[in-house]
Amino acid sequence: MLQSIPCLNPEVQWEELESGALMAVYRRHESVLKRLWRRFLSAPEVAQVALDDAGSMVVRAIDGRRTVDDLIGCVARELRLSRRESEVSLLKYMDMLGRRRLIGFMAPGRKGEER
């Protein structure tokens, strides 16, 4: 996992807020049952997630070349955290971004070929 390369989902729009933080705007990916329930409730198809400063810094650092391990080092330096604190926090954050399909991961050694 640490050698995988995170990539931003090209279907997600990233907007910069006045505060300098980023907001992700994306279409929800749901099961058929959830989609029917959302339509019944007239809930929007589009979701928005506003990131905090640290989250925005991480997303800006995702360039399709840096590995998860590289990003852990960036977070540790920028936020003055220990390597272990950075690793735990970043892996949790990457999991959340991945579950929402805001990012994906390329296997090590397969740069330029998305998974």
Overview of the molecule:
This protein has 115 residues and is α+β, with helices and mostly antiparallel strands. The chain has helices at 32-41, 53-61, 68-79, 83-99; strands at residues 5-8, 13-16, 22-27, 46-50, 103-106. The strands form 2 sheets. Strands 2-3-4 form a 3-stranded antiparallel beta sheet, with helices on one face. A hairpin with a 5-residue loop joins β2 (13-16) and β3 (22-27). α2 (53-61) packs across α3 and α3 crosses α4 (83-99). The longest helix is centred in the last third of the chain and has 17 residues, at 83-99. The protein starts with a strand and ends in a 9-residue tail after the last strand. The model has no long low-confidence stretch (mean pLDDT 87).
What topology does this entry show?
Elements: E1 5-8, E2 13-16, E3 22-27, H1 32-41, E4 46-50, H2 53-61, H3 68-79, H4 83-99, E5 103-106
Antiparallel strand pairs: 1-5, 2-3, 3-4
Helix pairs in contact: 2-3, 3-4
Chain oligomer state: single chain
Percent strand equals 15-25%
Radius of gyration: 16 Å
Q: Which strand order does the major sheet show?
A: 2-3-4
How many beta-strand runs?
5
Mean pLDDT: 87
Give me the CATH fold name: Arc Repressor Mutant, subunit A
The total count of helices amounts to 4
Which H/E pattern describes the elements?
EEEHEHHHE
Total individual domains: 1
User: How much helix is in the residues?
Assistant: 40-55%
